[in-house]
Structure formats: C-alpha cells, structure tokens
C-alpha cells in the first residue's frame, strides 16, 4: 500500500510540529524537532528556519506495520499558496490541521476549497488543545457549519471494542439502506466498516481528531486511521503516466524534476519525451536513494530533463486544470549597475522554473525584469534566496496591482499585412469569454478560403504569447477569438506574415470594442464584536467593496463580501489595531472583477497604445510596388477577402 498524504494548515496552526510527530511516532526520525529550535526534519532551508514558517514543500517517507506513506508538508502562509496548490494535485489524502484556539482561518478555507475541488478525502486534526482558550467542540461545530460537511470524532475510534453509537448514527445519516437497517436493529459490524471506509475515501464523511502535536498527543490515533482508511490501489499495468509537481536545482545547478507516478512503471534507461532517464531518486527530506524502477503511486525524481515543466502530465495529452492561486501584484527587480542584466535574468528564469507563478519577464522597452507575486513576504524570501544561492544582492520596487482587460460586446477585427513581397490577411470575431477562461480560440474558416496549414499557423500565433489590451497594456483575458476568414498569396506569403496580420486583426478589433478593465478582488470574511460591525461596514464601503448583510453569532457579528486587493491589502494592520487583536479577518483570492476606478488607473499607468512595440492597429497594403498604411478605422473597407460578419 502506498499513499501520499498532504499536510495543510493556516500558518502557525502547528502543521510542521505535527509532521515531526508523525515521523517520530513511525520511527522515521529519532527525535522530533521544533520550529523554535530550528531543527525540524522538513523545514531545513535557512529561510524557513529563520522565519519559523514553511516556504518550500518537502516530502518524507514513513512506514507502519500495515503500509508505506509519502508525507508532503506544504506552506501555510498565503504568500506561498501557489506552491501549496501544486501539492494538492498529487496528494491522495489531505490532513488539515486547525488550531483549537484560532479555529478556521483564511488559509484554512483556501486549502479546504482546493482539496474539495480536487475531490481529495480529508482528515481534520484540531491542534493545540494544551493552549489557553482551546475549544475543541467549538472548532468541530465550526468545521461542520462553515464547510457544510458531516464530521465525526475519530480520536478514540480504535480504542473502543465496538462502534461508538454517535459514529453509527453519523454513518447511517449518509446512506438510506444503512439507516433502514439501523432503525430495524440490524447491525453487521463488518458491513458498516466497509461502508465507513468507502464513505471516507469518497468524501462523504470526514474523520476529526484532536490533541497537541507539541505534547505528542493524538498523533497515534491519526496513524491508525491512515492504516485503516487510506487504502489506495494503483494501476501498475499499461503505459506510464506521471505528473510533474515540483522542480528544484541542486548546489551544482542540476535540474531535479519531481514526478508523481499515476499509472504504470518507469525504469532507468526508459524514455520520457525522447529523453533517456539516467537516474531515478526517491527523496526523504534532504536525503535520497537511487532506484532502478518506480511504479504507480510513488513520488520520485529524475535528473537533468530540460523539457519537463511543473504541471505537465507525462503520457497524457489532455489539458491539465488551471491553477487558481494566481499572483495579484507585479514588481520590478532592482540591482546594481555592475550586475549583468542577462545573468540576473537567467537566475530568475531558474527560479521561475521552480515557481511558475512568478511569470518572470524581460521588458525590452524599459530594460527591466518584472515578476508577479502574491505578497510582500514572498519578496523578502526571494531576496534572501538570491543572496544565499547565487550571492546576488537585489531589491524590488513597491508592488503594483496586476490589472487585466477584456471586452463587453462581440466585435470583428481585421488585419492585413502586405509590404513588398509579403502577404497575409486575417478576419477575427472577438467575443467576451467565460470569466477566468483566459484566451480561447475557435476556427470557422473554410479551407476554400485559406489552406489548413495557414489556419493552424494563425492559431499558433494566438497562443505564442500573452496578448495585451488597449486601455493599459495589461494582459488580455476572457475573450473567445474566432477565425472567420483569411487570405494568403501563393508566392509572397512567408514566415511571420500571418503573425503580423493576426496581431493587427486582434488589435483592430479591440480598438472598436467596449473595453473593460479588471482588477483582483479578495473574498473577505470578518468576525468582530457586534459593537464594531459598523466600523467594519464603513471601512469596506470606503474600500469600494461589496458585502452581504451581517449575521449575528452570539455577541459577535460576521460579515462576508468581496473587496478590491488595491484598497484592502494593508487593512489587516488597521483591523488588528482597532480590534486589539480580538477580531477575525480572513482574506482569500476571489478572482478578477470590474475595476472600481478605471479612469484613475488608466491615467496612472499612462499606456500609449500607439507606441506599443509589438502591436499595431493599422494594416499595411501595397499598390504599384509601394506599401502604405491604413488606420484601423478604415481597414475593413480595404480588405481583400470576403467580409463574413457572423
């Protein structure tokens, strides 16, 4: 039996301490480390030890009398939630650790939603019962209420001779057949155990444990549950399928690609994408051993493959799901004049391979390196990583909000590119897309109008880069581009012509469109004493947020809503001040919505669409051996192919 268990929590809930106890109780380590002692098995990076938080996901192996498990400890700080999300994809079961004092916090909800969407079975462990103010019952009620799921107290389940009555009732509530048998007094313990196992693995019911990881209480019960309820069967036959979930580089700069085997087997000297596998490693913390073969269910690492990237599925051509934890801010990298632009960019490209959410890019116009981030703590870590790994001292500009652009109504876009001895023409219909769909493409062009190879080339050009809008030059998103018509020349069409025509058709359409500026929003949940709810409402209104009517919970009031990141990212400091640390503020990335102050943002960014080095709205035609430019307003009337406005 081989299962991958992911450990998830809001920062400071005790997740890393819990991981240490799992390793200690299964004799994987001789003594549990402590975060405050900077000697934990999995948080071995200096940046983690200094800050006392998990930044990089790490894995360890544990063995019990009944099974082998791969444990992944994930970051609990919101700034590193992109790393956490990548681990969600490869775990078989999740354990969410929740503080018995603080209860469900912002990142806890984010973790829960991701695990739920990926249909991963979940255990809950209520930690820190040794702390003053701990309230196990309150947290269990909160889990059921906030996550709308049936949980049961599993802490002493394996210590009782027979099924606890409350567990029997909870299981019976989820199945009509069992409920009928239960009411008739017909109870077959083996049958109920089988049903219970199935319900846990299909996320119908959720075991909940409690204890204190620091005091080593409650851990053994979780280990018993892993043996009983996490049986995972893998298909070792058939072609190899694997998912790349992490990339790292060793001290010598060699690329390490971490893969979860989903199906089949892989051996040394087998090939992945025509590259021979020279070495297979199984990692356990910082240590590893080499093996000749790996099989479905295992986490393993290969050396040196330059082709593979995070999120790629080997042996499966289906499109992977998009990640949801997206950066909301952009910064410029600042470094001394003595440093080489090329060298600094190469180092950030290496970090980009390890964390694709950075989206590192070189701006030719300003000769600057830009990257995307989730929060300011991430910047502090990046500065330390650059100094320790590469001996490079860098800094960053103040973070700026990442805006996006889309359109309200469908438009037609026309592009023609015909300087001397060149020729290409493209007609697009550009429609508003589904929210968070990015840029999608559809081909309705007939082969009688344009040959299939040119149609494919146009599609390729639409996905070779991230396109930008005309308002601020921000990334274009949520648009559906339909190829309607096009034209090529038998002699004069050459490489790059359809790129020029396609880009011009896209930009010509955007010039006519009702463009919308989008900005990132937080989903906010605030719990304060009822006397302070008026202040909170005022603050959200000032921040241009939207919210539902407050809900009373005893002496407290709970308010939920959405608010722009730009107006609310510094609010936690203000909130902690006026609540004296007694309120609860949860912020989660909610996606992109219409910008609350587009005119102000457009003016501040000052993007001049006519000076964009990549895009032109005009078309180029040729007459009597001379090329001439036609502005976008007149381009449609000059097109050569039939106008098919559909």
TrEMBL record:
Gene3D superfamilies given in the database record? 3.30.230.10, 3.30.70.240, Elongation Factor G (Translational Gtpase), domain 3 (3.30.70.870), P-loop containing nucleotide triphosphate hydrolases (3.40.50.300), Translation factors (2.40.30.10)
Example of a GO biological process term? translation
Molecular functions per Gene Ontology: GTP binding; GTPase activity
Domain Tr-type G stretches: 1-235
Q: Which UniProt keywords apply?
A: GTP-binding, Nucleotide-binding, Protein biosynthesis
- Among its keywords, does the record have Nucleotide-binding? yes
Source species, domain of life: Bacteria
Write down the NCBIfam families for this protein, in alphabetical order: small_GTP
- Entries under PANTHER family matching the protein: RIBOSOME-RELEASING FACTOR 2, MITOCHONDRIAL, TRANSLATION ELONGATION FACTOR G-RELATED
Name by which UniProt lists this protein: Small GTP-binding protein domain-containing protein
